[in-house]
C-alpha cells in the first residue's frame, strides 16, 4: 500500500470523531459525572502531563514507522 500513512492518519481521525460522539452521548445519560471517566493520574497534574506526552510521542513514532515501512510485494 503506497499511502499507508494516509490510511493510518484517517483511522486515527475517525477514532477521534467516534470518541467525541461517545463522549457527547454520555452526557445524555441522567446522573453522568466526570468521575465515571477519571484516569488513575487525573488528580496528579505533572504525572498526567508526562503520561500524555509519552503517549503522544509513541503515537507519532507509530505513525512515522507505519508510513515508512515497506512491505515486500510478491512477484508473479
Structure, described:
The protein is an all-alpha fold. It has one domain (4-68). It has helices at residues 4-26, 45-68. α1 (4-26) packs antiparallel against α2 (45-68).
List the defining traits of the structure above.
76 residues, mainly alpha, 2 helices
In terms of per-residue confidence, which ranges show pLDDT below 50 for 5 or more consecutive residues?
A: none
Please indicate the percent range of residues in DSSP E strands (runs of 2 or more): under 5%
Shape: flat
Radius of gyration: 18 Å
Mind summarizing the main beta sheet? none
What is the total domain count? 1
Give the CA-CA distance, first to last residue.
Answer: 17 Å
Order of H and E elements: HH
Count of helices? Answer: 2
Count the strands? Answer: 0
Short description:
The chain is an all-alpha fold and 76 residues long.
